[in-house]
Fold this sequence. Notes:
The chain is an alpha+beta fold.
Amino acid sequence: MHELSVTQNVLNVVLEHAQRAGARRIIAIHLVIGELTGFVDDSIQFYFDMLSPDTIAAGAKLAIRRIPARLRCRACGEEFTLKDSNWLCPKCSAVGGDILQGREFLIESIEIE
Ligand SMILES: [Zn+2]
């Protein structure tokens, strides 16, 4: 399970930042996750709830923004959004392409008090 280690990483990073900022509590964590990472929101929430209780991030809200996968066709240059894992170019039906976005995984911001 991928999500356990990434969630542990997120928690480490936000705790470090919050402590440096002198926070008493972390209220919310905003994450940006690309569709191609394969990460499932519910799994991240699950691991977060498991890992965070003894920290100042306990009870923090995870706000996850998904980034759709976008590809550029290598044959015709058409840019398209991946839907239902269909990697065919809508214009020329070539398979696959260069990934423009969708592999993101980052902490956008945190809310503390
Ligand atoms: Zn094409």
